[in-house]
Write a structure and sequence with these properties.
heterodimer; A: mainly beta; 13-stranded mixed sheet; two-stranded parallel ribbon; 3 helices; elongated; B: alpha+beta; Alpha-Beta Plaits; nine-stranded antiparallel sheet; three-stranded antiparallel sheet; 5 helices; about 20% helix
Chain lengths: ~260, ~300
């Protein structure tokens, strides 16, 4: 079956909530075209805002996107979304399964409250990436996220499990109250990083935060090479390249079991 | 029926439904992976007394293992889920966890999952670390040489145990050599193991015994030393019989193992001493699978 393709026809200043995309469960093209969606205070048919073609609603392509398309992949379950272009806020919010591939930049609050699935962002992401959704105690419960470029501030708050790989820099006040999970950051790290963390594993290149951690001995750890292989396989590129990272284990201040691999 | 001159009797092997699982053991080098696997698969010849039947399925290259180190895959077979779970955990804990540099992974995917490192993690005494990658959870348990990485669960699948054939030979030397050829062929096949020592059984059994406490006893009909006393099934020229027991994940796997190993024997120099190939069965009433030798070799 051919993927369902939506090409955005409009370019306006009003934000458009795209969360309806995740709920499409029909291959009937006319039903999809006639679905009503809100833009501002007016109701439009999907076909008025998008050129729709294809049939497979579990494999959706969105073309010609812009910064005003919000909540793409919100609460996504068992679908594949491929997005060409920049998008707005709330990418993959509360996503539970499936795959999102974004060839562009995402706005704020991307991957907030994610519970599963994989997100590949070949661009940068705004602030509060993988942050806490309102009323929820854990920010990123599970899943895999790869960001090729930079991530804004106040990101990765109260992460519970899963894997996040960031190819570029991360802003200030990030990785706060880390509970568990693995975060790889290959660029520079902003100030106030990893405050009040309890456990979790950080794989970093920026040595500026090492002073807060207890240096461990040079034990051979099966895990690191295994993890490196798995992540490089998932991303299909050798993003983590190091056979012998320096390992730190435990925070100096509170002796919390946070693990740090410095590449 | 003769295959390259090797006489195949018109009989069948009787095999049973079992539950199986596969694990992958890796280590820094193949020597230590083998040490762990030999220990793990020790005393795992028959479910009659060992609880589980296990064997090394094959050696794995670095490119075939989850962590890029050399290793082996092991198959375990049991009659019940609970026994399989119990044996898998105790053997993993005593034989893999204890062996230097090793790691343990699931070698099967499926819906019916059984614990692998799920309870072993408690050996970490609170310092164990969980990592979930690709919907699979792994445990990192700190040990004295670094850490033991172990997957949380592995799959359990239906399987078949007890496929077999018997080589009836003029002498013991040729019989054993022919068995070795067969076991060597089967060791290169996927999804099958030969759980007995070296893959060969000399003590084929029948159901029941004159002693009430025993559920199985020597298969007197195939014991050359009892010819003339019992209802022997051996001709006067037979002086040694050996059996190869094959456990496999599917009927096709066991069919293939029997076929390829018998063809290999039929092409060997020991063929002239093998008087016939037979198979062990219980009259066809106990086992769910019948492996008719002649059908397999057609």
């Amino acid at each position: 079956m051919k993927p369902l393709v939506l090409r955005c026809k409009i370019k306006c200043n009003i934000r458009l909530d795209m969360s309806w995309l995740s709920t499409i469960d029909t291959s009937n093209l006319s039903l999809i075209k006639n679905k009503n969606i809100l833009l501002g205070n007016k109701r439009y048919k999907v076909s008025e805002l998008f050129t729709v073609s294809g049939e497979d609603s579990s494999n959706i392509k969105i073309l010609n996107t812009n910064d005003n398309l919000d909540n793409i992949g919100s609460s996504l379950k068992n679908k594949k979304l491929t997005i060409e272009g920049n998008i707005g806020r709330g990418l993959a919010r509360n996503m539970t399964s499936g795959t999102i591939i974004l060839n562009g930049n995402a706005g704020d609050v991307a991957c907030s409250g994610m519970k599963g699935g994989s997100v590949f962002i070949y661009g940068s992401v705004g602030n509060r990436f993988c942050s806490l959704p309102t009323g929820i105690n854990e920010g990123f419960s599970d899943g895999f996220v790869y960001v090729q470029k930079n991530v804004g501030s106040d990101s990765i708050i109260r992460m519970r499990r899963g894997n996040i790989v960031i190819g570029g820099n991360i802003g200030i006040n990030s990785c706060r109250e880390l509970i568990a999970g693995t975060v790889t950051i290959l660029g520079k790290i902003g100030k106030e990083f990893c405050c009040n963390a309890r456990r979790g594993t950080l794989i970093i290149k920026d040595r500026s935060i090492c002073k807060d951690f207890i240096k461990s001995n040079s034990t051979d750890l099966t895990f690191f090479n295994f993890y490196q292989m798995k992540i490089n396989n998932i991303i299909d590129s050798s993003v983590i390249k190091n056979k012998k990272p320096v390992r730190y284990f435990g925070t100096k201040a509170e002796k919390k079991l946070v693990e740090l691999f410095v590449l | 029926m003769r295959i390259n001159g090797l006489l195949i009797e018109n009989t069948f092997a009787e095999a049973f439904n079992m539950k199986a699982s596969r694990v992958i053991v890796t280590a820094d080098n193949i020597k230590w992976a083998k040490n762990a696997c030999l220990s793990f698969t020790g005393f795992a010849t028959s479910v009659i007394a060992c609880g589980v039947e296990a064997g090394i399925e094959k050696e794995l290259k670095k490119t075939q293992t989850p962590d890029g180190r050399p290793g082996y895959s092991i198959l375990l077979f049991s009659m019940s889920r609970s026994q399989l779970e119990k044996q898998l955990e105790t053997r993993s804990g005593q034989c893999i966890l204890t062996c230097p540099t090793t790691a343990l992974f699931s070698g099967l995917e499926g819906e019916d999952m059984i614990p692998l490192g799920k309870n072993l993690k408690y050996f970490g005494d609170g310092y164990q670390i969980s990592k979930k990658i690709d919907d699979r959870r792994f445990w990192r348990i700190p040990v004295m040489d670094g850490e033991f990485v172990c997957e949380e669960k592995t799959a359990r699948v239906p399987a078949i145990g007890g496929g077999n054939f018997l080589l009836l030979s003029k002498n013991r030397e040729s019989c054993l050599a022919a068995c070795e050829i067969a076991v060597n062929v089967m060791s290169k096949l996927d999804n099958v193991i030969t759980p007995f020592p070296g893959g060969v059984v000399r003590s084929g059994s029948k159901v029941g015994s004159k002693y009430k406490a025993l559920i199985a006893s020597t298969n007197d009909a195939f014991c050359p030393s009892l010819k003339g006393i019992t209802g022997s099934k051996l001709s006067k020229d037979v002086s040694a019989v050996m059996e190869i027991v094959i456990n496999g994940l599917t009927k096709e796997d066991i069919d293939k193992a029997i076929r390829e190993s018998l063809i290999a024997i039929s092409k060997s120099k020991y063929k002239k001493d093998i008087l016939s190939v037979s198979a062990g069965n219980y009259g066809g009433k106990l086992g769910q699978y019948h492996f008719h030798l002649r059908d397999i070799l057609k």
